[in-house]
What does this fold into?
Amino acid sequence: MEFKVNREFRMKPIFVDSNSIKTKNTQLPLVDVIVDSPVGKLLLTANSFGLTHLTVATEIELTKQDSIVSNDALLDDYNKAAQHIENTKQQLSEYFDGKRTVFELTLAPKGTEFQHQVWQALVDVNYGESCSYSDIANIINRPKAVRAVGAANGANPIAIIVPCHRIIGKSGKLTGYAYGLEMKQSLLDLESSEFRIWLS
It folds into this structure.
């Protein structure tokens, strides 16, 4: 069966092209926060333009100190970044409580144009659905770029919100996941009340 993206109007994450952002500051302040979740401790990172990373925190990251801004000129950017973090924390809590199926956040990951195309296609895979790398390749009109799609999927810096966990093998089996198949299965189980597999 052919996978088709449901393009009904719904608020979804908005991508900001952070590669083209021009700022007076040579480096935007980043806010790092570690939060607890049912799948482990998550590291959230944001700048003033949006969320840049959502990863599983490593042992080294768990020992990091909170971000500190000493330059008053950067304080406004820092506060904006902190607000993106707070919005993300709230919506993640709702997601894990089963009360949210669509994230409404601004995302600012760095990546190539191709990677951004793939990540946007991942966002368009609805809660409760899954598809394969070849499905994503077809969606972005690059049907022969299945391996490149797989690489972009693996390079996704914003787990859960850019739902690379919804990508499975064409046979219906789970494929690799940066944070392990156990976490991938847990996320799919969370969404299982509406989980449907469409195979191309």
User: Anything to note?
Assistant: Residues 75-96 form the longest helix (22 residues).
